[in-house]
């Protein structure tokens, strides 16, 4: 699926990140993708992003639209033209926007589930939650911190930042293919968040992640980032023999 280049503002982006057992992640991630590992662990998570002034590049900002969105992600790698590429596999997307729900998978990549968002932000403190139409629930409470969560698998904020910056290409399932979407940012900068509470019905589902196979690791924040989106190279689904 090819779309015109889209531009806008990332008003707020929270990445809530977990480590997951590599063998479990391999069962979730479909070929041609494989989990990208850090110290033997897969990296999964949730992106909670508020977009503003989103419109085809070249159109004036006042014609743009905004929405709250959530994406479940797993860091992956794959081979393309003899090179090892990296990005994220996105098994599901959720949105506050009815347009995104209707157009997702038709006009732009990825089916989107309609969700009701509950957001409260003040004094560097953030509460972002949503309940989707199928009952999927996410909630995080956090505040801006000076350093990465102690004990994070990444060790430092810079290492974590570089890891997630490299995962700018996302693939979502749609029909018989995986549709690619590439994020470009002018000023990539993340802050650490100290998380006081996090809930995810997806990562707490023991039919997907057996007890003890997934652990909260860290959370990161981006604000007020100019960005563009463009189509990536779609990939066909691989049918197992």
Describe the structure.
With 241 residues, the protein is mainly beta. It has a single domain (6-233), classed as Acetoacetate decarboxylase-like (Beta Barrel), CATH 2.40.400. The chain has 3 helices and 14 strands. The chain has helices at 22-28, 98-103, 157-165, and strands spanning 6-21, 34-35, 37-38, 41-56, 65-80, 83-95, 112-122, 125-132, 137-145, 169-174, 177-185, 191-200, 214-231, 235-236. Strands 1, 2, 3, 4, 5, 6, 7, 8, 9, 10, 11, 12, 13 and 14 form a 14-stranded mixed sheet that branches.
Extended strand count? 14
Could you say what the CATH topology is called? Acetoacetate decarboxylase-like
Task: Give the termini separation.
Answer: 26 Å
Give me the CATH architecture, please. Answer: Beta Barrel
Give me the number of helical elements: 3
Q: Structural class of the secondary elements?
A: mainly beta
Radius of gyration (Å): 17 Å
Q: Would you tell me the overall average pLDDT?
A: 91
Please describe the biggest sheet, giving its number of strands, its sense, and whether it closes into a barrel.
14 strands, mixed
CATH class assignment: Mainly Beta
CATH homology group: Acetoacetate decarboxylase-like
Helical amount: under 10%
Supply the number of structural domains: 1
Taking pLDDT < 50 over at least 5 consecutive residues as the criterion, the unreliable ranges are none
